[in-house]
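User: Quick sanity check before I run a bigger batch. Here is a single chain. Can you write out its predicted 3D structure?
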Amino acid sequence: MDEIRECLVSPAPESFYILQCAMIKLNEQIIEQIIEQIMKMDQKIMKEGYEYECKEEEESSMSTSKSIQTQIETSANVNANANANANASNKKKGDSKSSKANANANGNGNGGTGTGTGTVIMLLPSMDTPLTQDTEKAQFLMKLAPRIRALEKNAFRSISQHLELILKRKLRMSRERERQRDNTQPNSNSENEKSSTSTSSGMNTNTNHPIEEDQRLLLGHLFRSFALLGRGSDAESMFASVAIMPIVRKKISIGKLDEGGSRGECAGLSPLLKEIVSDIKDLWGDVLQLVESIFDMSMEMEHYNKDIHIHYLSTNTTKGGLARTSDSDKSKIDLVTAGVWVPIARALMTDPAIKTAIFSPGIASIFQANYSVLEKFLSQLSFNLLKPSSSESIEEKESGVETADSTFGGDEDKLALTELYYEPDIDTNLIRVAQARIYGHGTTVEFSKKWNLPIYYQLRFGEVCARLEKAIQQVESDGWHAEVYSGSGSDEVVHSLTKNYGFELPFFMEVFDTLRWLWGPEVFLKPLTHRFLRGTIQILGRVISFIKDGLEGKIKFGSEAAPSSSSIDGASESALGTGEDTSLSTTMPKIDRSYCWNERIEDVASVSWELTILETYLKEEHVQNVLKTLNSSGPEHLGGDEMSSLIGEVMVEAAQDISPVVDTVWNEIIVNILTAKCTAPLSAVKGVAATYRMTNRPPPTQASPFVGTILRSLQEFDTTFSSRTPSYLGTLWKKTIVDTIADLYSTAVAELIETVQRTEEALKNRKVRRAAAGGMSDGEKVRLQLFLDQQAFSRSIEDVGIDPSSIDGMKKLISLTKATEELYLKTISS
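Assistant: Done. Predicted structure follows.
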């Protein structure tokens, strides 16, 4: 201070350099005093922990700040006087060097605050303010940084020890209560065991116990302290290792995993996971609820909460999942995910025996059961851990203040403090957000990659293909009625499929059961939805290809059969009786029983009807079954109406090749077969003339016998398959057949009439004699017969449901026989 006063008295230029050095020295003294106070505070914290008096510390810090503020003001006043003297000196001498010194004095005297001359207030910078090198502020923070780090380290060590101590104490108290309960219940009956168990369970979940209430209060403060220090991940790791891992190690073992089943079946996986969650909920449920309510992360999760389940199910998830990426995330604590789920997942993934038993895809049924159990467990984890206990809610409603009064023994001070305790408010939104964090965690992504889902799909699809190929081979050997259905409960299921759906051929029952089995809850896995959809299309493609090959005559049913054993034995005996060599006689030729099923109209129509049923099922009921399976296999149905529309489009695309096959069957194959059968009787039309030529027979009174057989095949087929004809086909196929037959029939009648006319012209000289004998010529008898046949054929067309007036061939036939109508009326009248 003396040096500063001397500089102020002397206006010499070099005095400003001395003044600058003195100011730096004064600033260093101020910094050393601040560091001294921090060291004293640090030593006191280390010595007394959290129990030092805040009042004493406040007074000490206030006195220190006052002394520092006094020194800062003194320094500011000195700087102001120095500036005034320097300006006066510069005005007198006009020296350029003194002007530079004045500028330097201004820069240093202001302390970098940029406020100009006058009273200067020095403000300590924020920890986030960037500083330049080689300044007093940088030196201040550089000297202060080690002390701050040491203080943070010591504080972290202290709260870590406290957290570990309280967690272990809570575990120890829980074990003591379990031991006491076990000692008091060895001789009790089953009813007493149930009541005592429920009572003890209520004690575990009772948060109003004074000791547990104090522990929960301390845990809340400790977790907040971790968050303030930005060490939330350390708190999560300590909770996982101290509180959760003992429960997990105690429960998870290969013996308990196989409990209730044979070795390797993992029959005990579901009860094991339920038991772990139940124990964690009973012991740490109140802590989990408290921490989840304190560190509400619903706002941070909104941007990916809706799509988070896709991250877990996708095999292309980015490495690391949705881990902490910002400093604000480090001040949050997530015990549900990092404290509970992560240790459970690590225990399942790290133990070689358990890992092999759960994740091995060797046995598809066990793999699917394990995946379904763990997916259901994971989807309900946050709800099972955070949901309010029913016993708590009932107790709170019934007891109210009286319960708190009895708990604290009537202590009014403690009772008054309970009103200030923080009570967690867990709602569905918090639970949903916690579940989203579980799905987005990197451990969940790593856990999902342990499942070898493509191998599982190959195994399942291989089973389906094996069943289908076996059925196809048997049908090729024994025909469409071969018993190829291999589903469970064969007789009952076959009856149900026939009654409810209309299936009659065992092959299509097998195809139906294969598709339903593929999408069943015991086979389907949600992440493989796209593969199962593709598999459905491939299965239908194989079936349709097999049917098309048969319709085109590329596949023959039946096989070459060897002669029966009786015929071989008879031939051998006869050869032995005659003494002939039997080596050649016993080599009998095989009988060729193969046939093309597209030539059998019953097979063609039956296959067409089964395809129609299958197509209807795929477009309607199968879509609903798929959506039902999707909803039941995951925590949420993704996509809603969009997913339903997508599944419907895929099924329509899969079934789009069925309709063309059905149309081809009815409008081409069945039409051709029936047309060929109905055309055969038309050859008898030529015989009508021979019946009356020079036979002296009486005029006809009824239609020819062959007319009733023309459409008989169509009538019989229509009667048999009328209930198994696709409704959208209508009567077009029948009209096509009748049109063709009527055209052929009218052509045959026209040719016959022309032949009769030529014959009559050749026999004109005998007409007078025949008219005198009977009154009607042979030609007239033939025409009359054709007219009667035309009327009978018209009635046959009406019987098959076709309007004769819409048939062009029928119109032609009527015009050919119309001239005979008068002769017919005369015959009737006479």
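The two ends are 160 Å apart (CA to CA).

User: Great, the batch can go ahead then.
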